[in-house]
Structure formats: C-alpha cells, structure tokens
Amino acid sequence: MGRILAIDYGSKRTGLAVTDPLRIIATALETVRSFELIDFLKRYTANETVDVFVVGMPRTLENTDTNNTPHVKGFIKQLKKAFPDTPVYEHDERFTSSMALQTMISMGSKKSDRRNKGNIDKVSATIILQSFIESQR
C-alpha cells in the first residue's frame, strides 16, 4: 500500500505531509516553493509510492471560493497532468492555518518557529491529511 500525500498549496510556498505506508499516521514532510512543487513531487514519487494526493481546498465560512481557490484549482490541473494515474482528492482546508498555529503553541514551539510560515504550512498540510484519513474511516 502506498502513501497518501497532502498538499497545502499557496501561491508562494506549499506545505506537504504524508502518511506512513500503512496510512495510519500523518507526518509533516516539507515546505516547497510552489513553482518547484511538481518537480519535487516527481523526485519524491520516484523514491516513495504515493497512491493518492489530497489537496486542501480554500473555502470561506459561507462555503464559497476564496481569492486563492482559482490558483489551487489551476494547480490541481497541473498535478493531474503530471500524475495522470494517481487520484487527486480535494479536502476542505478551512481553519487549518489557525489550527496549525494553535497546535504549534500547544506543542511548545518557539515563537521564532511559529513565525516561520513554512512551518505553519507543513503543520497545516498535516492537519488536512489527518482530517482526510479520518473522513475515510
């Protein structure tokens, strides 16, 4: 069984998280500059089996598109083109950034670590992935 890889896509940088091969635990993987993301994923999938991509879909509280939604949808098209045999699921990412910050605070992360938006992006991707895993059970 391959891993599930979650993507918290942003216009500048993207947080990534993966499951273990048994799909039990979600772990932060990396933060990548968004323009390098497809190349990073190609390198990663050359070494690790990824069966599913989960992309966080930005929505407002009213469940409408945000300013970033069209960018994410454009990225999903690129992802499907680059990995035509790998299913891509969209998953609601509302509140993940604030949840990530609260998680980092409760874990005792230093203030400097919490200011690093790349760390928040990785934790956000992990929250998206954990939520997706739970929704599949």
From TrEMBL:
Its EC number is 3.1.-.-. GO terms for biological process: rRNA 5'-end processing. One of its GO terms (cellular component) is cytosol. Could be a nuclease involved in processing of the 5'-end of pre-16S rRNA. It is an enzyme of class 3 (hydrolase). GO terms for molecular function: hydrolase activity, acting on ester bonds; nuclease activity. The keyword Hydrolase applies. It comes from Runella aurantiaca. It comes from the Bacteria. It holds the Pfam family RuvX. HAMAP family: Nuclease_YqgF. Keywords: Cytoplasm, Hydrolase, Nuclease, Ribosome biogenesis. It is found in: Cytoplasm. Its main location: cytoplasm. Residues 2-100 form the YqgF/RNase H-like domain. Belongs to the YqgF HJR family. This is Putative pre-16S rRNA nuclease.
